[in-house]
Design goal:
By secondary structure, this protein is mainly alpha-helical. Helix content is about 45%, strand content about 5%.
Length: about 110
């Protein structure tokens, strides 16, 4: 697995590729927070579709997964009404995320 970043829109994926995406890419692939008209979400979603069709192997580690969950939590926090807790860390200690705000189920 290379640590070199490649332009995803021009990359020709191969079945033997082993891919690891940055947290920001997973947030755009998830798409629940971005409109389909968002150029970045469309770019990464189209590439991910090609990756799934070719059946490349994708990897995710605990740090990326943790950043993904924390990032979605923070975005959800900012989307809450004005009576939200004053501090994000207080919000994180609140009820489990599905009860704090609805999120669609997504396979990683």
């Amino acid at each position: 697995m290379s640590d070199r970043a490649l332009p995803i829109e021009r990359h020709m994926f191969r079945k033997e590729d082993k891919l690891r995406f940055d947290t920001n890419v997973w947030v755009f692939i998830d798409g629940s927070l971005y409109r389909s008209a968002d150029k970045r979400a469309r770019l990464y979603s189209d590439a991910y579709k090609r990756i799934l069709e070719i059946r490349c192997r994708t990897f995710i580690d605990a740090i990326i997964l943790s950043e993904f969950v924390n990032g979605l939590s923070l975005m959800g926090y900012h989307g809450l009404p004005s009576e939200r807790p004053q501090a994000f860390k207080t919000f994180r200690r609140s009820a489990p995320l599905p009860r704090a705000f609805p999120m669609p189920a997504t396979e990683l």
